[in-house]
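[audit] Reproducing an earlier prediction to check determinism. Same input, same settings, fresh worker. If the tokens differ from the archived copy the diff job will pick it up downstream; this log only records the rerun itself.
[audit] input (478 residues):
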Amino acid sequence: MLFNSLSFLLFLPIVFAIYWLVNKKSLHLQNLLLLLASYFFYACWDWRFLFLLLFSTGLDYFAGIKMAEAKSQGNRTSWFWLSVVINLGFLGVFKYYNFFADSFAEALAGLGFQANFWTLNVILPVGISFYTFHGLSYVIDIYKERIQPERNVVTYSLFVAYFPLLVAGPIERATHLLPQIKKRRFFDYSKAVDGVHQIIWGLFKKIVIADNCALYANDIIDHYESMNSLSLFLGAIYFSFQIYGDFSGYSDIAVGTSKLFGIDLLRNFNYPYFSRDIAEFWRRWHISLSSWFRDYLYIPLGGSKGGMLMKIRNTFIIFLVSGFWHGANWTFIVWGALHAVFFLPLLLTQRNRNNIESVAKGKSLATLHEFIAIASTFCLTSFAWIFFRAKTVTDAFGYLKNMFSFNFEGGFQFLDFERYSSELLLLLGLFVVFEWNAREQEHPIKGQFVSLKTLVVIITILILGVFSSPADFIYFQF
């Protein structure tokens, strides 16, 4: 079930109405309803993978209790590693087995040996990377004695399967979400209105910005051999806005939807394209994943406490793992490595914590220096996105080769033969201005009064977008 589909537009108000009706009876009924709704939401993708979600949930729930009850450290460690290995094992089989099998076969072929490995013809279970990380953070926190295990199976299951975040995050922590699930919730009109506003803004970013950019980005990137340099630069810009509008739009809908049920989710995006360096970009882009890797991988490896060589090693590890988390393809690994290289000068000069506050805070315009820093960071991220989007590393390098061939024959080639492309560029410019003016708010229409007439017009436009073949969100493949 897509957030940008008619089925979700029917599903959400029904669950919302029943949820607040049973609120008068008990918290348990409220949580049970959300859990059943979440399982229905997930089963709409493929009901068979619901059993995998149930197994993963049961494994971590049981392992958490067993770790708390263990009489010895050895027994406690055994339960911890059982959960970690099985969870990562499922992720490895479904997401990475074919990648390793094919890569190993190609490596042997390069040495003159022919090897045929079995590959799996399976569909990647939607959301597996996200709910696996939910469970891993839970068992790690119990093992490190940061939290106590949750013994109410409905409460814990809802923490893992809560439908707004189940498919593509944000990646929640037990320390943040579980206390909210265990606490009685009461309807807050102002929070619900803000949630509706955030849903509308998320749908706008997905349907109007991302899906329109996708039409042109796909056409340019998939036919890069016949495009001139200007068109290829344009394709990189379109994809940069596509992936931002798509993923941050999903996150806005997820966070806004959760507000309707009185539950606050972690913020996942904070205007990342207004970052002044790569370090700031990663504090603002996919925040829940960046902070997850920081807390559960980077810091355990030693973080920034050791010498410079250790800091460099840890930086490359975290970026490479982040790239590999996104997909079983060398393109994602190269994408992660590029960000590590971009981050390295900041680390070596100890400037990676320079830009903590929002750019031009309290001001209308950025300084020339800030503008150049923002533009440079956007260029670096757009350069790296080419590898993220390409089907193969060879395609990515071919795209870059043609892009930097400085072939301007035909002028604005793509703008000339594609309808509405210039209008879309104007829309993107207005979108950037709108977000810039709201960069210190959670989302641009937060706290804004929206009249009923305006709201009806906006919702009508978005529904029309829903009816015109709703497109999948990019991060569903991860």
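[audit] rerun output stored. Observation attached for the diff report: The two ends are 16 Å apart (CA to CA).
[audit] end
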